[in-house]
Specification:
CATH architecture: 3-Layer(aba) Sandwich
Strand content: 5-15%
Shape: globular
Bound molecules: magnesium ion
Number of helices: 10
CATH class: Alpha Beta
Number of domains: 1
Helix content: 40-55%
Largest sheet: 5 strands, parallel
Order of helices and strands: HHHEHHEHEHHEHEH
Structural class: alpha/beta
Radius of gyration: 18 Å
CATH superfamily: Thiamin diphosphate (ThDP)-binding fold, Pyr/PP domains
Length: 274
């Protein structure tokens, strides 16, 4: 995809995220908007995974550790053809499989996630399996900065370096906010780069809302042979909607009809200006 096409995709994804959150009257708005560009680049430029190869053992794996921002994942999976977009009309409805966290009952979802600190350990196990089976697939996991303090992450980090998992890439959506407050106030995990380097990972930083920068850096995987890759993606929570950006209440705030109209008009204007 061209740079412009990728940027257009991000805007369309953001519009759909808001559309289905408003329809469901529930969702994790700010975090879905912060990680949209990361998912866009992974699914449209980097990963070898599609509805056609999803049952193949050779597919790349994506495990969304920050499962609560499932709306971003669902919108991208629908766009890639894993299921009809109309299915998202049932988001958060009784008996729908499209609930507030990823579940394997939805085509294209690799793992059930949402309990924080679990995605990386699963990804490490999946990457070890790939090495044992002599497969060339890669494993990607997207983590929130708010889940960094979970102890299971650090056990997994040790294991990944020990087993030299250069088929593994962990990306942290570093929007610097979590449900109740800035992450630095809840449990400060900075400096992330030094910590992960000291655990034996190859670490890079990128603007996580810049699709061109994301594409360039993810094309360079693994960052170092014989090491797992850790990408610190600096993002803005609520990205793309002025009144949501860096505002805590939009962690799981649902826009009113007027707020939704304003968000859509802003995103339409962004589309025009691309
Ligand atoms: Mg966060």
């Amino acid at each position: 995809m061209t740079s412009k096409e990728l940027k257009q995709k991000s805007v369309l994804y953001r519009k759909n995220i808001l559309k289905y959150i408003v329809k469901a009257k529930a969702g994790h708005t700010g975090g879905s908007l912060s990680c949209t560009d990361i998912l866009n680049v992974l699914y449209n430029e980097i990963m070898n995974v599609s509805p056609g190869n999803f049952s193949s053992p050779d597919r790349d794996r994506y495990i969304q550790s920050k499962g609560h921002t499932v709306e971003a994942l669902f919108v991208v999976l629908a766009d890639k053809g894993f299921f009809p977009e109309e299915d998202l009309e049932t988001l958060c409805r009784y008996q729908s499989h499209y609930i507030g966290h990823p579940t394997k009952k939805v085509n294209g979802v690799e793992q059930n996630t949402g309990a924080l600190g679990h995605g990386l350990p699963i990804a490490v196990g999946t990457a070890i399996a790939g090495k044992l089976d002599e497969k060339n697939y890669r494993v990607f996991t997207l983590m929130g900065d708010g889940e960094m303090p979970e102890g299971s992450n650090w056990e997994a980090a040790l294991s990944a370096a020990h087993y030299k998992l250069d088929n593994l890439c962990a990306i942290v959506d570093k929007n610097s906010l979590q449900i109740t407050a800035p992450t630095a106030e809840v449990c400060n995990t900075d400096p992330l780069d030094e910590k992960w380097k000291s655990f034996g990972w190859a670490v890079r930083e990128v603007d996580g809302n810049d699709v061109d920068a994301l594409k360039n850096i993810l094309k360079a995987l693994p960052f170092e042979a014989g090491k797992p890759s850790f990408l610190i993606a600096g993002t803005t929570k609520g990205k793309g909607v002025s009144y949501m950006e860096n505002v805590l209440k939009w962690h799981h705030g649902v826009p009113s009809a007027e707020e939704y109209d304003l968000a859509v008009s802003e995103l339409n204007q962004t589309l025009i200006e691309l």
